[in-house]
Design goal:
The chain is of the alpha/beta class. It is built from twelve helices and 14 strands.
């Protein structure tokens, strides 16, 4: 069995196991310590929808065509008021994604029951490999990024319990997509959690965010405990990552600064771990680069399924292979996409990013930034002007990456 845990809008240091001195995440701490943890993990995009599409397909956002969260609406149309038009544009935006093979489809085709919960953007999850789903994805009924699926971990865990019972009854292995809408806004964790942090956090907005992080951790603990009660824990692989980073704005609640939607480390870095006690030796790696592009092929290989050839990610269970690559890439695009311009990979582009060892280049359309992450882990000191040769080398690496990863779909 596989449980995929996807944190939503969380800073890469905001976990107990990553050394945060105030935030409590005891359940994730236990899972991380029992597994293979990469501290230097990265998302493929610092924005929810393209990040999730990459996770499902093992492709970069510029390959899937899912580069932003929402489509740019036709003139005179508002996505909040004109639901019919918004639904049509959403369907058009999802069409390229539907041509891709998700790792969930591969699991389903190999006998797995597959459950979707929480965040899901690409319309009906049942069309993309899930046998069971909370989200309906219908824009006319309020579907956008998860609808009723967003209740998981906030108001109920029952769909997960029912799904486990179904899998046991049918004697089938299962996969769960736990895309819980936490610690994402609204930062409205129960008062018992907020009260733990209100006097130790530097400000009230941060206290509310920290409380949501612990609320997220509690749900992860409920999953683990239920699987142990059912005798399924030992036969379950846990895979963890986040969709994008978050740094709480101290002056405004439910608002981020210098993180989400940006190519900063705080926007694109995340811990990644895979845990299966008894088969995966615990390892904590603070040097090797890992990417969310690696998660789809890792899950399939761990289940004995050969990934589709287009999935170029590596097996996270083989750190020596990741060490040989030791390079990651990130797409950063605007929030809304012009669907009639997806054939232009630079339309809506904010930046392409490469992290090569400890060197990081942010290549924006009008400038380039270079950082030494070994000595500047929060990428504050731009070294581009004093290292033109390194800038050129890393720029060439990005150019090759883009040429070797063209869009794999028919664009609308």
């Amino acid at each position: 069995n596989v449980v995929f845990i996807l944190s939503d809008d969380q800073g890469w240091m905001d976990y107990g196991f990553m050394g945060h001195e105030q935030i409590k995440t005891p359940n994730l701490d236990k899972l991380a310590s029992a597994g293979m943890l990469y501290e230097r993990g990265y998302v493929t995009a610092p924005l929810c929808r393209p990040s999730l599409a990459s996770l499902a397909t093992g492709l970069y956002p510029h390959e899937t065509g899912i580069r932003g969260n929402d489509p740019v609406m036709p003139d005179g149309k508002d996505k909040r008021k004109d639901k019919a038009a918004f639904g049509q544009m959403r369907a058009k935006m999802t069409a390229p994604f539907a041509e891709c093979t998700t790792f969930i489809e591969a699991l389903r085709d190999n006998g797995y029951l597959t459950l979707q919960t929480g965040k899901w953007w690409e319309e009906n999850p049942l069309d993309h490999g899930f046998t069971d789903a909370m989200t309906h994805g219908d824009a006319l009924r309020g579907g956008r990024h998860g609808d009723v699926g967003l209740k998981i971990g906030r108001t109920t865990m029952q769909p997960f319990y029912d799904f486990v019972e179904k899998a046991q009854t049918e004697e089938k292995p299962f996969f769960m997509w736990y895309g819980v809408f936490l610690p994402h806004t609204p930062h409205n964790a129960p008062a018992r959690l907020f009260n733990k942090y209100k006097d130790i956090a530097p400000d009230i907005p941060t206290a509310k965010y920290w409380a949501n992080v612990e609320w997220f951790d509690e749900g992860c603990g409920q999953i683990v405990e239920h699987l142990k009660e059912k005798g399924l824990y030992e036969n379950t692989i846990f895979v963890f990552t986040c969709d994008n980073g978050w740094v709480q704005n101290p002056k405004k609640k439910e608002s981020s600064i210098r993180s989400k939607r940006e190519p900063t480390e705080a926007g694109i870095r995340t811990p990644i771990f895979i845990t299966h006690e008894g088969s995966i030796e615990p390892l904590r790696d603070d040097q090797t680069l890992a990417s969310n592009i690696d998660i789809a092929p890792t899950i399939l290989k761990a289940c004995g399924i050969e990934p589709p050839a287009e999935m170029k990610g590596l097996d996270l269970r083989k750190p020596e292979v990741l060490q040989e690559r030791n390079r990651i890439f990130v797409d950063v695009y605007e929030h809304d996409s012009h669907l009639d311009k997806l054939d232009d990979l630079k339309d809506g582009l904010k930046a392409w990013v490469v992290v090569d060892g400890w060197d990081k280049l942010i290549m924006s359309p009008d400038h380039k930034e270079l950082y030494d992450l070994k000595n500047d882990p929060d990428d504050r000191r731009d070294l581009a002007s004093t290292n033109p040769e390194k800038v050129m080398k890393l720029s060439d690496i990005i150019d090759v990456w883009i040429k070797e990863t063209p869009p794999r779909v028919r664009l609308p």
